[in-house]
Amino acid sequence: MRRTIFYVSDGTGITAETLGHAVLTQFPGLEFTSIRLPFIETPEQAMHAVERMRAEAETRGVRPIVVSSVVNPAIREVLNEADVLMLDIFRPFVEPLVEELGIEPSPTIGRAHGFGDAARYDARIDATNYALSHDDGMGRSYDEADVVLVGVSRSGKTPTCLYLALQYGVRAANDPLVPEDLEAGRLPERLVGHKGRLFGLTIDPARLSEVRETRLPGTRYASAEQCRWEVSTSERLLQAQGVPVVSTTRSSVEEIASMILNRLDLREKGA
Amino acid sequence: MRRTIFYVSDGTGITAETLGHAVLTQFPGLEFTSIRLPFIETPEQAMHAVERMRAEAETRGVRPIVVSSVVNPAIREVLNEADVLMLDIFRPFVEPLVEELGIEPSPTIGRAHGFGDAARYDARIDATNYALSHDDGMGRSYDEADVVLVGVSRSGKTPTCLYLALQYGVRAANDPLVPEDLEAGRLPERLVGHKGRLFGLTIDPARLSEVRETRLPGTRYASAEQCRWEVSTSERLLQAQGVPVVSTTRSSVEEIASMILNRLDLREKGA
Asked: Across the interface, which of A15, A254, A259 has its CB nearest the CB of B19?
């Protein structure tokens, strides 16, 4: 069964898409085609959106599902004319909150992902610059880091650092455990003073070999044997030092970032 | 008025937090302290969570608000014992979908941000590596780019590229318009063949000067005059070439990324 899902918003539509995706994945066997309609800001644009929904219903032979985070009343009114299953992601929560808080909502379009919070924005941009300048051991001084990710080459450190920065404003550096570090059998000098902020990443050796093969095919660096040795040695070293270690083999960047925040009790910056 | 918000999940909690934040920002004057409780995977952990909620209610003198994306029934049961305003972010949408689709949901914990979709994951990691190796004109060949962001130094290109990669799996390169390019008064040769994929970023000159001052204080590069000249010249150049231009001064990274996707009709990769 394939259905068309529209994500409609007067902002970026990121909230609608995040929630809609999470709900829809709970229905096994359902396949869907997603159409994003962000920044619907005028009744005219809303009428065009309704037209697209009608056309889609005709092509597909079944009405589409619309996940909406539109807050502007004039635009909601136009959209409500469409023959669709309308899932308004805010409506169910506004009423209980009005009752709980005793204050009336003042829907402000796009505030959720807007520029509204300058401190939060600056923290995220700062953290991104920090991650970029402290990638792959480049910084070598971690005094300003909230967290330092350690692990062998291609264990997933860089995307995790960038995600921590962009999503949470956390300053994450990363430092590779290279074969010389592993042979020495102890925590590199440069990391010793930062033990409370270290977080280890590991990866299944077979997967690591695959990833390295794409990068440098046929090398010792990518060989199954080398990957097995690096992974087992780094895991042993980190565990002996009491550094928490998580595997990136079966976890998404979001999950790893969330685990790190949780484990190190880091709070979002500027929030 | 300050209230405590718990974000509780048996996954990362990202969906709960995204939606909760969007709803709560609609209540002006409400200030809140957020506590994340992700990866609540056992009834014991749920009982600890309930205990924390009780303690918070006592300290604060008012019951907390809980935004929950927990799908595991045993854990939900424990959480429902807490004296809180419980906002379950999935419940309101499951029933209408069951009716619409005629299939029963099979809640799978953490699927929304989980590893479930390997193709999507790989696309995002690939795109991140691409963004890093094509940052600030490093790549110089944009044949594989989905989009090439152009603009003066510090106009916000790098964070936008990384966000496009991590969030959408879009391969975004970026290329700086340096003073020599601006003096030449035409699109640099290296960009001419990629016109359909170019997207311009601009920024308020005063804000640009501020940002550059933090980086290289007291330089010509950071001077108000130089910033004004670079911004106006680059805007004129891009507009003359029909390259869409957006200002990063008052928009968040999410908004800019969403506008670019929308404008260039890019689709999420591996989705």
From this structure: A15
Mean local confidence (pLDDT), A63-81 = 93
> Considering only CA atoms, which of B202, B30, B104 is closest in space to residue A28?
B104
* A172-176 and A2-8 strand pairing: unpaired
Give contacts of A113 with chain B, Cβ < 8 Å: 22, 252, 254-255, 258
Banded pLDDT at B230 (limits 50, 70, 90): very high
Q: Do A85 and B69 touch (CB under 8 A)?
A: no
- The structure tokens 């060989």 sit at A223
Is A69's Cβ below 8 Å from some Cβ in B?
yes
Give me the residues of B, 147-206, that contact A with CB < 8 A: 156, 158-159, 162-163, 166
Half-sphere exposure of B212 (CA within 13 A, CB side): 23
Strand ranges across the sheet with A245-247: A172-176, A147-151, A198-202, A245-247
Helix (H/G/I), strand (E/B), else coil: A234: helix
**H helices then E strands: how many in chain A?**
11, 8
Backbone φ and ψ for B105, nearest 5 degrees, come out as -75, 155
Q: What is the CA radius of gyration of chain A?
A: 24
ipTM confidence: 0.72
Q: How far, in Å, CA of A55 to CA of A61, rounded?
A: 10
pTM beyond cutoff 0.80: no
A241 inside 8 A of chain B by CB:
no
Q: Does A259 touch chain B (CB under 8 A)?
A: yes
Matching residue, tokens 């029934």: B73
Q: Are the Cβ atoms of B255 and A114 closer than 8 angstroms?
A: yes
Reading the block at residue A29, the tokens are 């066997």
3-state secondary structure of B63: coil
CA distances from A261 to A168, A264, A269, B53, B70 (A): 9, 5, 11, 20, 19
3-state secondary structure of B223: coil
Interface touch A24/B65, C-beta < 8 Å:
no
- Quick check: B244 contacting A, CB < 8 Å? no
Counting every residue written for chain B, the total comes to 271
Beta-sheet pairing, A198-202 with B2-8:
unpaired
If pLDDT is split at 50, 70 and 90, which confidence band does B270 have?
very low
Per the rule left: phi > 0, alpha: psi between -120 and 50, beta: everything else, B37 is beta
- Estimate to the nearest angstrom the gap between the alpha carbon of A159 and the chain centroid: 10
Residue contact A258–B12, C-beta within 8 A:
yes
Min distance A222 CA to chain B CA atoms (Å): 18
Q: Where are the beta strands (DSSP E) in chain B?
A: 2-8, 31-37, 65-68, 85-88, 147-151, 172-176, 198-202, 245-247
**First and final CA of chain B: distance in angstroms?**
41
User: What sign does the dihedral B215-B213-B176-A166 (CA atoms) show?
Assistant: positive
DSSP letter, residue B64: P
